[in-house]
Amino acid sequence: MTYWRAVLLVAARDIRVEWRSREQAVTLLFFALLVLVVFNFAFDFTVIDFATLGAGVLWVAFIFSGVLAISRSFQMEREQDRIQGILLAPIDRSAFYLGKVAATVLFMAVVEAIVVPVSVVMFNFRFSGRIALVVVALILNTVGFAAVGTLFAAMTTRTRRGELLLPLLLFPAAVPVALAAVKTTTHLVAGRPFERYAPWVALSAGYDLIFLAASVLLIDYVLED
Amino acid sequence: MMDGRQSRTTWIDALEPGLDALVVLLVPACLFAIFRLVPTEEKMGVVQRIFYFHVPSALAGFLGVALCAVCSALYLWTRDRRYDRVAHASAELGVLFFTIVLLTGPIWARPVWGVYWTGEVRLTSTLVLWLMYVGYLLLRRSAENPEQAARWAGVLGIVGALDLPIIYKSVEWWRGLHPKVLKVSGGQGLDPAMQHAFALCVFTFLLLFLALLIQRCRLGLLEEQVATLTQEVSRR
User: Fold this and answer.
1) ipTM computed for the complex
2) What is the extent of the structural domain holding B172?
3) Number of domains in chain B
4) Yes or no, beta carbons of A176 and B76 under 8 Å apart
């Protein structure tokens, strides 16, 4: 079995499990929408221009629901000790890791694909950027967040305080992606030229590469037992 | 594992009492220098004296974080428990010294800047760094066994070290458009007494770091021995 086939199989398994119940996606989606509603009350968007705050609101929603998705993804492995089966399977552990990251990115992308249009309606903001660029920005930053999050979740979900510990580790570590995501999205929504936010896109891409590579190298140490 | 118990005397053990004594002498010397020898800074007034503790603490904190990263990598590579003990101790000291930095900073900032806290890049990234290493210590405590704690901490120590420069850069860019509140005043125009006192404080804090590091590593070793003994006893 080739390496990438193993990655695909792990991701496909996560997606299939989710597809059967559709529990997680629905919960995540409503959680993210709820965050938007909370912000709707917290800030008066008839006074504040959504273009200035909107990107931050959206990314708070994505990051919060993303943490839940990542945490859930590894708790699932604990049930009936599935993780033992995975670790005994003749696949590379980094392939398992990359499969989990891929599935998490997909779940977060589904939430984002629904929440972004909803926020356009809800907050009545005029959107003048290019759709393709928005998608690229969303995916770049989601990958970085999921990459570090999945590595950390492989550790934290096996502890007693896992659900508390994951955000505690992940939020500080993910500060660069959060900042890059908010800045890029703000510039995109305002329809500013690419040169204005090109460094942020480069930062997101660099972050993705560095931490995907580091995690692939380090995951063996995390999943040793 | 019977031979591990306080059998060998290493050069560190021989050095340590002298080091402790030196630190005990140097800390009052620093205080004397700060409060009696150094002239009061013209613009900031007396509160500027907090710098003599603030900056050396930051240096000691960075030393802790760097040492933690290096020893984390060495531990994962060699699986030698000694590296893990040093990594753990230096992470703890990093948190300790950065706590001092984060406490003394606002005390200085309030009279001089007029605010306790701003979104300035160094403040923000120091806070993020501090949170990250608090998380590191919490993760260690949550692990099921010491071996797992050491491995996980090793991973986190490396990821943290990779992340810190990126965090700093991103916060810097984030604040890029805002006016800089903090003006970096270089070494020029500093009173010689100030320079000497500052050098003394840096030296003292680095020695203090070293003394605490040795103590904490020794404590770590004792903790491991207690754990081993407890296991042995319970097996009987």
Assistant:
1) 0.88
2) 11-235
3) 1
4) no
